[in-house]
């Protein structure tokens, strides 16, 4: 599990650690790690030209100490001081003593033009709001010049706690972050600005947080955001055993599709079958299309409540305006996943009143409609939006998009999915995800785990299917078994 912590939690842990180590030790650890990564990016340090962008806080101090180390190894290092009257004094002294050159703001463009590497030490976790002038102008000139950029702790202009970017921000090739990940490095848009993230151990110790849907709210010492890795997903995959039968593996009921959108039903059923369901029951108006593609599906003509035994329902993909059956599903006392049109059609009070787990899977547009805000607002503040929706509906919410997020109804860490690929932005791929996550719910995973494991497998399947070329949603569904094998290490 990759865990990320809020600035408040990081600061508390740093204070605790600083009380136990010699003064300045943490900054030296940070600077040493930073210099190593800079040297890797440069390839050859001796004779290279490095430019440090140095802000007024400790982030600038890290850059100066790392710059001193590079200067001692023969790099020509220049430091552009953004506020010469306020700069980390110890860092500046070390930098000068190592032969580093200080340039005034006006000289910045000149040194930047010949740079082999730019080190962004403008602001770190002390950054508040969008970058102010002159930092903002400097950042746009760096972008225009195109030199490789290593960001110190996080790209300046990215909000550490949320990944929100207002105005200019540094686009880094590599971000060297200290102690622990920050949420803004894992959630878009911040994640995209961070490039490759390298974690440097400075001795911080923070506990593992409580997962989505896991109960306790995030407080000091608890993770704000967590990202599954292969092992986390592998340990949750429902595998059949000798005692398994189709009911024990989980029967998924799917209420999806319409005369107008029969394909959504086919895709959701396809996702569910590859998600490990023992059986899939289909209820809706696209039964002919479903059976033609998946003869193994069990179709029923009556309402969902009469369809027979079901361990979890998926409702909504491609329903159009056909709300028939939806109320039945919302009233069921088994886990329910609501997606797409179902999110618009379902009665909010009935969803809130449900006793069994509920997983809502909106994309940004659907989330915006549920929240009554503009889509851009959700895109800009994904973490806040997913938490707000989960709280309002008393449900687990999976917010789709370039970094899919899963939040539980009672706070706790939000899961962020690291496996997605922009190739997944293709019509119907969300329908596949709903079936896949529904199968995991039916197999007995909690809503937070089903959402996070589903998103992880779906993202991997997208990568397998695409492999650098466009894909359709059907291809994604067909690649789910390859994603399982990947995760299981087969
Ligand atoms: N606290 C610690 O133990 C350690 C901290 N370290 C470094 O220290 C950083 C935090 O240092 P600070 O608390 O001094 O804070 P920062 O250096 O991140 O930023 C604070 C400075 O940036 C300015 N600033 C804030 N928002 C701005 C904006 N929007 N536009 C322009 N300027 C802005 C402020 O006026 C302030 O002077 C970390 O990110 C990390 O790089 C590391 O040295 C490791 C150890
Ligand atoms: N830029 C992106 N990067 C990674 N994944 C994406 C991106 N855009 C969309 N996706 C994923 O693609 C899927 C699209 O689902 P959705 O928006 O519901 O489409 P549809 O309704 O057509 O099925 C989601 O799983 C989403 O997370
Ligand atoms: K920075």
Automatic annotation (TrEMBL):
Bifunctional enzyme that catalyzes the epimerization of the S- and R-forms of NAD(P)HX and the dehydration of the S-form of NAD(P)HX at the expense of ADP, which is converted to AMP. This allows the repair of both epimers of NAD(P)HX, a damaged form of NAD(P)H that is a result of enzymatic or heat-dependent hydration. Catalyzes the dehydration of the S-form of NAD(P)HX at the expense of ADP, which is converted to AMP. Together with NAD(P)HX epimerase, which catalyzes the epimerization of the S- and R-forms, the enzyme allows the repair of both epimers of NAD(P)HX, a damaged form of NAD(P)H that is a result of enzymatic or heat-dependent hydration. Keywords: ATP-binding, Isomerase, Lyase, Metal-binding, Multifunctional enzyme, NAD, NADP, Nucleotide-binding, Potassium. Residues 10-210 form the YjeF N-terminal domain. It catalyses: (6R)-NADHX = (6S)-NADHX; (6S)-NADPHX + ADP = AMP + phosphate + NADPH + H(+); (6S)-NADHX + ADP = AMP + phosphate + NADH + H(+); (6R)-NADPHX = (6S)-NADPHX. K(+) binds at residues 59, 120, 156. SUPFAM superfamilies: Ribokinase-like (SSF53613), YjeF N-terminal domain-like (SSF64153). The keyword Magnesium does not apply. It holds the Pfam family YjeF_N. Its EC number is 4.2.1.136, 5.1.99.6. (6S)-NADPHX binds at residues 58-62, 124-130, 153, 264, 318, 363, 431. InterPro entries: CARKD, Nnr, Ribokinase-like, YjeF_N_dom, YjeF_N_dom_sf. Homotetramer. Its cofactor is K(+); Mg(2+). Binds 1 potassium ion per subunit. Belongs to the NnrE/AIBP family. Residues 229-487 form the YjeF C-terminal domain. This is Bifunctional NAD(P)H-hydrate repair enzyme.
